[in-house]
């Protein structure tokens, strides 16, 4: 009999009432993820269809973006969370004045892949709510990622998986319809120290700063270049899928800032993409930066701010930092 997520939560989050409430919230998020998965499996072809509305990014919302947002909003309500901050909502939603926690969430990550039947996901970050946050709610999503109490993502792919950390390592759980819940697939993931693959949207090459181009040029030069070995490239375009692959077999992911309008801080969102991925990666022995600064130390200016993002095998992330800080 495989070990269940429930057993993991009971042993990892049992120190006090607050921890038990976080465990309960993770169970509610799992319930929502199964609903979203069922909608993906059964929902027919209209899930990738565009609705009339746009989200905070100006992206036209797809049917599944809205379904996922609703499912996870309900999970947050059921969890007794005080605030819900979603990519699909303009500002923080207050749910329960007496709640102690807040959730920042990307309900449907990888929207552009919905209609292509490629892995997509949900990314979440659970944060504490302080008295100062209660007095001035907009500050709840202005706390740095180092404050996260738990972080994770669901992957809706060939398998439904939960990649989770509550600060005691990064663990992978697989949804088993036979078992009727999530069971442990990998306890304590460790990211390989040596990167053999890189993950970046190469079509943006011409928009990057010179130091990023130099770094990627050196990878592409392979055996004949300064790295004296060949690198493979993989880029799914769903952060959850690229992050999961790196957790499994190492490598490095980059979404740097670039010269396009609106990309001066890259594309990815700090509160519900970079922070949770950074916590998972660090808990697995890897590193995550904006190029030079540790992601978890960034003081955010608000729920929807973006950040350049580099994460993966620690040595490789540090190497990229040197290309940026010391381009010669
Ligand atoms: P989304 O949350 O609206 O789907 O956008 C985020 C996605 C990430 O999953 C992925 O890493 C990135 O955007 C891909 O961007 P691009 O298409 O510019 O390479
Ligand atoms: Mg996303």
Automatic annotation (TrEMBL):
<feature type="binding site">
    <location>
        <begin position="109"/>
        <end position="112"/>
    </location>
    <ligand>
        <name>substrate</name>
    </ligand>
</feature>
<keyword id="KW-0378">Hydrolase</keyword>
<dbReference type="InterPro" id="IPR000146">
    <property type="entry name" value="FBPase_class-1"/>
</dbReference>
<dbReference type="GO" id="GO:0006000">
    <property type="term" value="P:fructose metabolic process"/>
</dbReference>
<keyword id="KW-0479">Metal-binding</keyword>
<dbReference type="GO" id="GO:0000287">
    <property type="term" value="F:magnesium ion binding"/>
</dbReference>
<feature type="binding site">
    <location>
        <position position="106"/>
    </location>
    <ligand>
        <name>Mg(2+) 1</name>
    </ligand>
</feature>
<feature type="domain" description="Fructose-1-6-bisphosphatase class I N-terminal">
    <location>
        <begin position="22"/>
        <end position="183"/>
    </location>
</feature>
<feature type="binding site">
    <location>
        <position position="87"/>
    </location>
    <ligand>
        <name>Mg(2+) 1</name>
    </ligand>
</feature>
<feature type="binding site">
    <location>
        <position position="109"/>
    </location>
    <ligand>
        <name>Mg(2+) 2</name>
    </ligand>
</feature>
<comment type="similarity">
    <text>Belongs to the FBPase class 1 family.</text>
</comment>
<dbReference type="GO" id="GO:0006094">
    <property type="term" value="P:gluconeogenesis"/>
</dbReference>
<feature type="binding site">
    <location>
        <position position="235"/>
    </location>
    <ligand>
        <name>substrate</name>
    </ligand>
</feature>
<feature type="binding site">
    <location>
        <position position="108"/>
    </location>
    <ligand>
        <name>Mg(2+) 1</name>
    </ligand>
</feature>
<dbReference type="GO" id="GO:0030388">
    <property type="term" value="P:fructose 1,6-bisphosphate metabolic process"/>
</dbReference>
<dbReference type="InterPro" id="IPR028343">
    <property type="entry name" value="FBPtase"/>
</dbReference>
<dbReference type="Pfam" id="PF18913">
    <property type="entry name" value="FBPase_C"/>
</dbReference>
<protein>
    <recommendedName>
        <fullName>Fructose-1,6-bisphosphatase class 1</fullName>
        <ecNumber>3.1.3.11</ecNumber>
    </recommendedName>
</protein>
<keyword id="KW-0119">Carbohydrate metabolism</keyword>
<keyword id="KW-0460">Magnesium</keyword>
<dbReference type="GO" id="GO:0042132">
    <property type="term" value="F:fructose 1,6-bisphosphate 1-phosphatase activity"/>
</dbReference>
<dbReference type="GO" id="GO:0005829">
    <property type="term" value="C:cytosol"/>
</dbReference>
<comment type="pathway">
    <text>Carbohydrate biosynthesis.</text>
</comment>
<feature type="binding site">
    <location>
        <position position="273"/>
    </location>
    <ligand>
        <name>Mg(2+) 2</name>
    </ligand>
</feature>
<feature type="domain" description="Fructose-1-6-bisphosphatase class 1 C-terminal">
    <location>
        <begin position="191"/>
        <end position="323"/>
    </location>
</feature>
<feature type="binding site">
    <location>
        <position position="201"/>
    </location>
    <ligand>
        <name>substrate</name>
    </ligand>
</feature>
<dbReference type="Pfam" id="PF00316">
    <property type="entry name" value="FBPase"/>
</dbReference>
<dbReference type="InterPro" id="IPR044015">
    <property type="entry name" value="FBPase_C_dom"/>
</dbReference>
<dbReference type="GO" id="GO:0005986">
    <property type="term" value="P:sucrose biosynthetic process"/>
</dbReference>
<comment type="subunit">
    <text>Homotetramer.</text>
</comment>
<keyword id="KW-0963">Cytoplasm</keyword>
<dbReference type="InterPro" id="IPR033391">
    <property type="entry name" value="FBPase_N"/>
</dbReference>
<dbReference type="GO" id="GO:0006002">
    <property type="term" value="P:fructose 6-phosphate metabolic process"/>
</dbReference>
<feature type="binding site">
    <location>
        <position position="106"/>
    </location>
    <ligand>
        <name>Mg(2+) 2</name>
    </ligand>
</feature>
């Amino acid at each position: 009999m495989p070990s269940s997520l429930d057993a993991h939560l009971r042993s990892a989050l049992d120190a006090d009432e607050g921890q038990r409430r976080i465990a309960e919230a993770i169970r509610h998020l799992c319930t929502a993820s199964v609903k979203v998965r069922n909608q993906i499996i059964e929902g027919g072809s209209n899930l990738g269809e565009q609705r009339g509305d746009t989200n905070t990014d100006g992206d036209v919302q797809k049917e599944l973006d809205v379904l996922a947002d609703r499912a996870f909003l309900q999970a947050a309500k059921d969890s007794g969370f005080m605030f819900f901050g979603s990519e699909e909502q303009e500002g923080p939603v207050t749910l329960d004045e007496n709640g102690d926690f807040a959730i920042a969430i990307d309900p449907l990550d990888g929207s552009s892949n919905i209609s292509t039947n490629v892995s997509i996901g949900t990314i979440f970050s659970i944060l504490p709510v302080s008295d100062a946050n209660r007095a001035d709610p907009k500050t709840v999503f202005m706390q740095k990622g180092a404050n996260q109490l738990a972080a994770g993502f669901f992957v809706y792919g060939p398998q439904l998986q939960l990649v989770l950390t509550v600060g005691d390592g990064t663990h992978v759980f697989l949804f088993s319809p036979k078992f009727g819940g999530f069971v442990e697939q990998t306890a304590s993931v460790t990211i390989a120290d040596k990167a053999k693959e890189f993950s970046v949207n190469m079509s943006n090459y011409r928009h990057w700063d010179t130091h990023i181009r130099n770094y990627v040029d050196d990878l592409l030069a392979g055996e004949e270049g300064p790295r004296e070995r060949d690198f493979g490239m993989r880029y799914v375009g769903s952060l959850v899928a690229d992050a999961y692959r790196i957790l499994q077999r190492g490598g490095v992911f980059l979404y740097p800032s670039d010269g396009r309008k609106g990309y001066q801080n890259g594309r990815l969102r700090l509160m519900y993409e970079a922070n949770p991925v950074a916590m998972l990666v660090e808990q697995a022995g890897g590193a995550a930066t904006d190029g030079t600064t540790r992601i978890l130390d960034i003081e955010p200016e608000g729920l929807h701010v973006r950040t350049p993002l580099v994460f993966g095998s620690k040595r490789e992330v540090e190497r990229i930092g040197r290309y940026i800080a010391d381009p010669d």
